[in-house]
Protein backbone atom coordinates (compact mmCIF):
# COMPACT_ATOMS: atom_id res chain seq x y z
CA UNK A 1 0.00 0.00 0.00
CA UNK A 2 1.34 3.54 -0.76
CA UNK A 3 2.39 5.66 2.19
CA UNK A 4 -0.17 8.20 3.35
CA UNK A 5 0.58 11.90 3.08
CA UNK A 6 0.87 13.79 6.35
CA UNK A 7 -1.94 16.28 7.02
CA UNK A 8 -1.19 19.79 5.87
CA UNK A 9 -0.25 22.08 8.69
CA UNK A 10 -2.34 25.13 9.29
CA UNK A 11 -1.78 28.08 11.56
CA UNK A 12 -4.08 28.31 14.51
CA UNK A 13 -6.71 30.97 14.08
CA UNK A 14 -6.83 31.59 17.80
CA UNK A 15 -10.49 30.70 18.03
CA UNK A 16 -11.95 27.98 20.24
CA UNK A 17 -12.68 25.98 17.06
CA UNK A 18 -9.11 26.64 15.92
CA UNK A 19 -7.84 25.01 19.12
CA UNK A 20 -10.07 22.00 18.38
CA UNK A 21 -8.60 21.85 14.88
CA UNK A 22 -5.07 21.61 16.28
CA UNK A 23 -6.12 18.80 18.65
CA UNK A 24 -7.74 16.90 15.76
CA UNK A 25 -4.58 17.34 13.67
CA UNK A 26 -2.53 15.75 16.44
CA UNK A 27 -4.92 12.80 16.69
CA UNK A 28 -4.84 12.32 12.91
CA UNK A 29 -1.03 12.33 12.87
CA UNK A 30 -0.93 9.63 15.56
CA UNK A 31 -3.52 7.57 13.69
CA UNK A 32 -1.59 7.75 10.43
CA UNK A 33 1.66 6.80 12.18
CA UNK A 34 -0.08 3.77 13.69
CA UNK A 35 -1.44 2.71 10.30
CA UNK A 36 2.00 3.00 8.72
CA UNK A 37 3.40 0.79 11.50
CA UNK A 38 0.63 -1.77 11.01
CA UNK A 39 1.41 -1.91 7.29
CA UNK A 40 5.09 -2.49 8.05
CA UNK A 41 4.26 -5.21 10.58
CA UNK A 42 1.95 -6.91 8.08
CA UNK A 43 4.64 -6.87 5.40
CA UNK A 44 7.16 -8.34 7.85
CA UNK A 45 4.72 -11.05 8.98
CA UNK A 46 3.96 -12.05 5.39
CA UNK A 47 7.68 -12.28 4.63
CA UNK A 48 8.10 -14.55 7.65
CA UNK A 49 5.15 -16.67 6.50
CA UNK A 50 6.70 -17.09 3.08
CA UNK A 51 10.08 -18.06 4.55
CA UNK A 52 8.68 -20.58 7.04
CA UNK A 53 6.18 -22.13 4.63
CA UNK A 54 8.93 -22.56 2.02
CA UNK A 55 11.19 -24.20 4.60
CA UNK A 56 8.35 -26.56 5.56
CA UNK A 57 7.51 -27.38 1.95
CA UNK A 58 11.14 -28.13 1.07
CA UNK A 59 11.56 -30.44 4.07
CA UNK A 60 8.36 -32.37 3.35
CA UNK A 61 9.32 -32.64 -0.32
CA UNK A 62 12.63 -34.25 0.65
CA UNK A 63 10.85 -36.73 2.91
CA UNK A 64 8.30 -37.61 0.23
CA UNK A 65 11.05 -38.08 -2.34
CA UNK A 66 12.84 -40.57 -0.10
CA UNK A 67 9.61 -42.40 0.69
CA UNK A 68 8.60 -42.48 -2.97
CA UNK A 69 11.72 -44.43 -3.90
CA UNK A 70 11.46 -46.60 -0.77
CA UNK A 71 13.52 -46.60 2.39
CA UNK A 72 13.97 -48.51 5.63
CA UNK A 73 11.10 -48.45 8.16
CA UNK A 74 11.66 -45.82 10.85
CA UNK A 75 14.64 -44.29 9.01
CA UNK A 76 16.26 -42.00 11.65
CA UNK A 77 17.29 -39.48 8.99
CA UNK A 78 13.68 -39.09 7.90
CA UNK A 79 12.57 -38.83 11.53
CA UNK A 80 15.02 -35.93 11.96
CA UNK A 81 13.63 -34.32 8.79
CA UNK A 82 10.09 -34.82 10.11
CA UNK A 83 11.03 -33.04 13.36
CA UNK A 84 12.45 -30.20 11.28
CA UNK A 85 9.19 -29.96 9.32
CA UNK A 86 7.26 -29.86 12.61
CA UNK A 87 9.45 -27.00 13.80
CA UNK A 88 8.84 -25.04 10.58
CA UNK A 89 5.09 -25.57 10.96
CA UNK A 90 5.26 -24.35 14.58
CA UNK A 91 7.05 -21.23 13.36
CA UNK A 92 4.28 -20.74 10.81
CA UNK A 93 1.76 -20.90 13.65
CA UNK A 94 3.78 -18.17 15.38
CA UNK A 95 3.56 -16.08 12.21
CA UNK A 96 -0.22 -16.41 12.32
CA UNK A 97 -0.09 -15.15 15.90
CA UNK A 98 1.77 -12.06 14.68
CA UNK A 99 -0.87 -11.53 11.97
CA UNK A 100 -3.57 -11.74 14.64
CA UNK A 101 -1.80 -9.06 16.66
CA UNK A 102 -1.67 -6.79 13.61
CA UNK A 103 -5.38 -7.40 13.06
CA UNK A 104 -6.24 -6.57 16.68
CA UNK A 105 -4.22 -3.35 16.66
CA UNK A 106 -5.58 -2.26 13.27
CA UNK A 107 -9.15 -2.95 14.41
CA UNK A 108 -8.60 -0.73 17.46
CA UNK A 109 -7.33 2.07 15.21
CA UNK A 110 -10.31 1.59 12.90
CA UNK A 111 -12.55 2.33 15.88
CA UNK A 112 -10.46 5.38 16.72
CA UNK A 113 -10.71 6.56 13.08
CA UNK A 114 -14.49 6.33 13.32
CA UNK A 115 -14.42 8.38 16.53
CA UNK A 116 -12.12 10.96 14.90
CA UNK A 117 -14.41 11.27 11.88
CA UNK A 118 -17.41 11.93 14.13
CA UNK A 119 -15.44 14.43 16.22
CA UNK A 120 -14.40 16.32 13.08
CA UNK A 121 -17.97 16.52 11.81
CA UNK A 122 -19.18 17.68 15.20
CA UNK A 123 -16.57 20.46 15.18
CA UNK A 124 -18.30 22.05 12.19
CA UNK A 125 -21.27 22.78 14.47
CA UNK A 126 -19.25 24.61 17.13
CA UNK A 127 -19.88 28.33 17.63
CA UNK A 128 -17.13 30.91 17.16
CA UNK A 129 -15.44 29.54 14.02
CA UNK A 130 -13.99 31.51 11.13
CA UNK A 131 -13.78 30.39 7.48
CA UNK A 132 -10.19 29.18 7.94
CA UNK A 133 -11.29 26.85 10.74
CA UNK A 134 -13.84 25.19 8.46
CA UNK A 135 -11.31 24.93 5.62
CA UNK A 136 -8.88 23.11 7.89
CA UNK A 137 -11.66 20.90 9.27
CA UNK A 138 -12.51 19.89 5.69
CA UNK A 139 -8.87 18.92 5.10
CA UNK A 140 -8.82 16.83 8.26
CA UNK A 141 -12.11 15.14 7.36
CA UNK A 142 -10.73 14.18 3.94
CA UNK A 143 -7.57 12.72 5.51
CA UNK A 144 -9.54 10.80 8.14
CA UNK A 145 -11.78 9.29 5.49
CA UNK A 146 -8.77 8.27 3.38
CA UNK A 147 -7.11 6.73 6.43
CA UNK A 148 -10.27 4.76 7.24
CA UNK A 149 -10.29 3.34 3.71
CA UNK A 150 -6.66 2.25 4.07
CA UNK A 151 -7.42 0.65 7.43
CA UNK A 152 -10.35 -1.27 5.97
CA UNK A 153 -8.16 -2.49 3.13
CA UNK A 154 -5.44 -3.53 5.56
CA UNK A 155 -7.88 -5.39 7.81
CA UNK A 156 -9.30 -7.28 4.82
CA UNK A 157 -5.82 -8.28 3.63
CA UNK A 158 -4.78 -9.41 7.11
CA UNK A 159 -8.00 -11.37 7.63
CA UNK A 160 -7.61 -13.17 4.30
CA UNK A 161 -3.99 -14.04 5.10
CA UNK A 162 -4.92 -15.37 8.55
CA UNK A 163 -7.70 -17.53 7.11
CA UNK A 164 -5.50 -18.89 4.32
CA UNK A 165 -2.54 -19.70 6.55
CA UNK A 166 -4.70 -21.14 9.36
CA UNK A 167 -6.35 -23.57 6.95
CA UNK A 168 -2.94 -24.50 5.54
CA UNK A 169 -1.45 -25.20 8.97
CA UNK A 170 -4.49 -27.26 10.03
CA UNK A 171 -4.29 -29.42 6.91
CA UNK A 172 -0.53 -29.83 7.16
CA UNK A 173 -0.71 -30.93 10.79
CA UNK A 174 -2.99 -33.75 9.63
CA UNK A 175 -0.59 -34.53 6.78
CA UNK A 176 2.35 -34.65 9.18
CA UNK A 177 0.59 -37.31 11.23
CA UNK A 178 0.08 -39.37 8.08
CA UNK A 179 3.67 -38.71 7.04
CA UNK A 180 4.94 -40.04 10.36
CA UNK A 181 3.04 -43.25 9.70
CA UNK A 182 4.63 -43.46 6.26
CA UNK A 183 8.11 -43.00 7.77
CA UNK A 184 7.32 -45.76 10.25
CA UNK A 185 6.48 -48.08 7.33
CA UNK A 186 9.22 -46.80 5.01
CA UNK A 187 6.71 -46.21 2.20
CA UNK A 188 4.73 -43.22 1.00
CA UNK A 189 1.02 -43.29 1.84
CA UNK A 190 -0.26 -39.91 0.70
CA UNK A 191 -1.97 -36.86 2.24
CA UNK A 192 -4.11 -37.07 5.35
CA UNK A 193 -7.52 -38.68 4.84
CA UNK A 194 -9.09 -35.44 6.06
CA UNK A 195 -7.99 -33.75 2.82
CA UNK A 196 -9.53 -36.51 0.64
CA UNK A 197 -6.72 -36.14 -1.90
CA UNK A 198 -5.82 -39.73 -2.57
CA UNK A 199 -3.25 -41.80 -4.44
CA UNK A 200 -3.54 -45.42 -5.64
CA UNK A 201 -1.55 -48.18 -4.00
CA UNK A 202 -0.93 -51.86 -4.62
CA UNK A 203 -2.57 -54.57 -2.49
CA UNK A 204 -0.84 -57.59 -0.96
CA UNK A 205 -3.70 -60.02 -1.54
CA UNK A 206 -2.27 -62.79 0.63
CA UNK A 207 -2.89 -60.73 3.76
CA UNK A 208 -5.48 -58.11 2.75
CA UNK A 209 -8.38 -58.03 0.34
CA UNK A 210 -10.14 -54.89 -0.87
CA UNK A 211 -13.59 -54.59 -2.38
CA UNK A 212 -15.08 -51.74 -4.34
CA UNK A 213 -16.45 -49.18 -1.90
CA UNK A 214 -19.84 -48.95 -3.56
CA UNK A 215 -20.43 -52.64 -2.82
CA UNK A 216 -19.78 -52.28 0.91
CA UNK A 217 -22.78 -52.81 3.21
CA UNK A 218 -24.26 -50.19 5.46
CA UNK A 219 -23.73 -52.41 8.47
CA UNK A 220 -21.46 -55.29 9.32
CA UNK A 221 -24.47 -57.19 10.56
CA UNK A 222 -25.97 -57.18 7.09
CA UNK A 223 -23.75 -60.08 6.08
CA UNK A 224 -22.50 -58.40 2.92
CA UNK A 225 -18.91 -58.15 1.82
CA UNK A 226 -16.54 -55.86 3.75
CA UNK A 227 -14.54 -53.07 2.19
CA UNK A 228 -11.31 -54.53 3.57
CA UNK A 229 -10.28 -57.80 5.20
CA UNK A 230 -6.91 -57.83 6.98
CA UNK A 231 -5.70 -61.34 7.84
CA UNK A 232 -3.26 -61.50 10.73
CA UNK A 233 -1.94 -64.91 9.67
CA UNK A 234 1.72 -64.05 10.28
CA UNK A 235 3.78 -61.59 12.35
CA UNK A 236 4.18 -57.97 11.23
CA UNK A 237 1.43 -57.90 8.63
CA UNK A 238 1.91 -54.85 6.39
CA UNK A 239 -1.54 -53.42 5.70
CA UNK A 240 -1.31 -49.61 6.02
CA UNK A 241 -0.75 -48.83 2.33
CA UNK A 242 -3.65 -50.91 1.07
CA UNK A 243 -5.87 -49.77 3.94
CA UNK A 244 -5.17 -46.13 3.13
CA UNK A 245 -6.06 -46.65 -0.53
CA UNK A 246 -9.30 -48.51 0.20
CA UNK A 247 -10.55 -46.03 2.80
CA UNK A 248 -9.56 -42.98 0.76
CA UNK A 249 -11.45 -44.32 -2.27
CA UNK A 250 -14.48 -44.97 -0.08
CA UNK A 251 -14.35 -41.36 1.12
CA UNK A 252 -14.03 -40.13 -2.46
CA UNK A 253 -17.31 -41.84 -3.27
CA UNK A 254 -19.01 -40.98 0.01
CA UNK A 255 -17.34 -38.15 1.96
CA UNK A 256 -19.72 -38.65 4.91
CA UNK A 257 -18.90 -42.35 5.26
CA UNK A 258 -18.22 -43.93 8.63
CA UNK A 259 -16.45 -47.21 9.19
CA UNK A 260 -17.05 -50.26 11.37
CA UNK A 261 -14.06 -52.37 12.39
CA UNK A 262 -14.96 -55.93 13.34
CA UNK A 263 -12.39 -58.10 15.09
CA UNK A 264 -12.97 -61.70 14.00
CA UNK A 265 -11.37 -64.66 15.80
CA UNK A 266 -11.66 -68.40 15.00
CA UNK A 267 -14.30 -70.15 17.09
CA UNK A 268 -12.59 -73.55 16.83
CA UNK A 269 -10.37 -74.93 19.59
CA UNK A 270 -10.60 -75.00 23.35
CA UNK A 271 -12.26 -72.27 25.34
CA UNK A 272 -8.83 -70.99 26.37
CA UNK A 273 -7.64 -70.87 22.76
CA UNK A 274 -10.77 -69.01 21.67
CA UNK A 275 -10.28 -66.49 24.49
CA UNK A 276 -6.63 -65.92 23.55
CA UNK A 277 -7.50 -65.49 19.87
CA UNK A 278 -10.37 -63.14 20.70
CA UNK A 279 -8.12 -60.89 22.79
CA UNK A 280 -5.45 -60.87 20.10
CA UNK A 281 -8.05 -60.05 17.44
CA UNK A 282 -9.34 -57.13 19.51
CA UNK A 283 -5.80 -55.78 19.86
CA UNK A 284 -5.38 -56.07 16.10
CA UNK A 285 -8.56 -54.06 15.56
CA UNK A 286 -7.31 -51.38 17.95
CA UNK A 287 -4.03 -51.21 16.00
CA UNK A 288 -5.96 -50.79 12.74
CA UNK A 289 -8.05 -48.03 14.28
CA UNK A 290 -4.88 -46.23 15.41
CA UNK A 291 -3.53 -46.53 11.88
CA UNK A 292 -6.70 -44.93 10.51
CA UNK A 293 -6.58 -42.03 12.97
CA UNK A 294 -2.88 -41.54 12.19
CA UNK A 295 -3.88 -41.30 8.53
CA UNK A 296 -6.22 -38.44 9.45
CA UNK A 297 -9.57 -40.20 9.80
CA UNK A 298 -11.46 -38.73 12.79
CA UNK A 299 -11.92 -41.27 15.58
CA UNK A 300 -15.65 -40.50 15.83
CA UNK A 301 -16.12 -41.94 12.34
CA UNK A 302 -14.86 -45.40 13.39
CA UNK A 303 -16.58 -47.98 15.61
CA UNK A 304 -15.19 -51.25 17.00
CA UNK A 305 -16.86 -54.59 17.60
CA UNK A 306 -15.74 -58.23 17.97
CA UNK A 307 -17.04 -61.67 17.13
CA UNK A 308 -15.93 -65.26 16.50
CA UNK A 309 -16.45 -67.36 13.39
CA UNK A 310 -16.02 -70.97 12.36
CA UNK A 311 -15.21 -69.84 8.80
CA UNK A 312 -11.80 -68.31 9.57
CA UNK A 313 -8.52 -70.03 10.31
CA UNK A 314 -6.67 -66.98 11.65
CA UNK A 315 -7.54 -63.67 13.26
CA UNK A 316 -9.00 -61.05 10.95
CA UNK A 317 -10.08 -57.43 11.06
CA UNK A 318 -12.90 -56.55 8.68
CA UNK A 319 -13.72 -52.96 7.76
CA UNK A 320 -17.25 -52.08 6.63
CA UNK A 321 -18.54 -48.80 5.21
CA UNK A 322 -21.71 -47.35 6.68
Structure in a nutshell:
The protein has 322 residues and is α+β, with helices and mostly antiparallel strands. The protein is built from 5 helices and 5 strands; from the N terminus they run H-H-H-E-E-H-E-H-E-E. 61% of the residues lie in helices and 10% in strands.
SSE inventory with pairings:
Elements: H1 16-69, H2 76-123, H3 131-185, E1 208-210, E2 228-232, H4 240-253, E3 259-266, H5 271-294, E4 302-309, E5 315-321
Q: How would you describe this structure to a colleague?
A:
- This protein is an alpha+beta fold.
- The protein has 2 domains: 16-185, Glutathione S-transferase Yfyf (Class Pi), Chain A, domain 2 (Up-down Bundle), CATH 1.20.1050; 194-321, 60s Ribosomal Protein L30, Chain: A (2-Layer Sandwich), CATH 3.30.1330.
- It has 5 helices and 5 strands, in the order αααββαβαββ.
- The chain has helices spanning 16-69, 76-123, 131-185, 240-253, 271-294, and strands spanning 208-210, 228-232, 259-266, 302-309, 315-321.
- Strand 3 (259-266), helix 5 (271-294) and strand 4 form a beta-alpha-beta unit.
- The radius of gyration is 32 Å and the shape is elongated.
Largest sheet, strands/sense/barrel: 5 strands, mixed
Helix amount: 55-70%
Structural class: alpha+beta
Low-confidence stretches: 1-8, 196-208, 210-222
Give a count of the beta strands, DSSP E runs of length 2 or more.
5
Task: Label the CATH architecture of the largest domain.
Answer: Up-down Bundle
Give the class-level CATH name of the largest domain: Mainly Alpha
Number of helices: 5
Taking the alpha carbons of the first and last residues, their distance comes to 53 Å
What CATH calls the topology of the largest domain is Glutathione S-transferase Yfyf (Class Pi), Chain A, domain 2
Going across the biggest sheet, name each strand in turn: 1-2-5-3-4
**Mean pLDDT across residues:** 83
Shape: elongated
Beta-strand content bin: 5-15%
* Tally of domains: 2
- Cα-atom radius of gyration: 32 Å
SSE order, as H and E? HHHEEHEHEE
Amino acid sequence: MPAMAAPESGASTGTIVGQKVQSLRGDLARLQANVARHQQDFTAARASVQHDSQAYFNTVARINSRLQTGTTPGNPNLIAEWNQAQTSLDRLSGDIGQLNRVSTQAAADASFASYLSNATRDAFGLQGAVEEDHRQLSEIQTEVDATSVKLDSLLTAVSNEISRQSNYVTNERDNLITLSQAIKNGRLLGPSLTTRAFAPASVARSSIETRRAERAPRSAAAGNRPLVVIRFDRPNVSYEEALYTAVSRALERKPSATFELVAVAPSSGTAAQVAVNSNASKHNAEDVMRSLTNMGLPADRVTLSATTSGDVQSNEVRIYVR
